[in-house]
Amino acid sequence: MGRGVRRRSLLAGAAALGAMGAVGCSRVSTAETGSGGDLLERLRAQRTVRLGLAGEQPYSYIGRDGKMTGSAPTIAKRIFERLGVPNLQPFPTEFSSLISGLNSQQFDVVAAGMYINPERCQQVIFADPEYQMLDAFIVPKGNPLNLRTYKDIAESGAKMATGVGYAEIAYAKEAGVKNITTLPDQLAGLLNVEQGRVDVFVGTAVTVRNVVQQSKSRKVEATPEVTPLVDGEPVIDVGGFAFRPAETNLRDAFNRELHKMKKSGELLRIMRPFGFGEEQMTEITAEEKCRP
Known about the structure:
Structural class: alpha/beta
């Protein structure tokens, strides 16, 4: 994704909840390089896996009921049950802290729909992606500035907002957008567009659609999908689960179950309630997206 650090935080106090959830949970030692790791066996013995969440709908977040939800935790629950690990423990944190938190063993797996790119592949290993994604904009009702591409934003001089660390920042800069503000999450983005503080909020297509639909706002709308460009070439991003580099045995076991779900159609059935459709399903591999 030529994309930098990505995403987000929906609920204040989520990180604190994660910290409380981690109390009393012993850390799993890092596997020796080259062995493939024994984390899966350790998780089976503990019967619990700790998931790093980033607080972004629909990928992974803590709902109003205080429970973990989202497409990634739901997928994780199904797969880890089949791997003999029945319990999930959430560890909400900022998106920019997910990789460091994983590698410092604060949690065992990143379950946040993390975009796969060569930079991140130098720090973690990824399962094959469970989805592909384009972007979309939140704009005032009627889209008065006719913003349908990043170039439109640049040429109009519109005030753009996106999330802290969102990859959309790089895409906007690539298109020549100068006036970029960062906000905590997509709900804050919607409210800022409603109030006229910014002209457009940019995020992933499913995230943008969901927040507009759920807000029932009569003041804003979501645009059709937007394809970002890097060096003049269209980019389709993909997201997946991340693991510590030494834990290839766990990643490979996870991958095998994920591919079974893709083949049977179970993956799409799990993800539909979170706003994903057939167009978000992908056969792209992590290896392909890790190439420079």
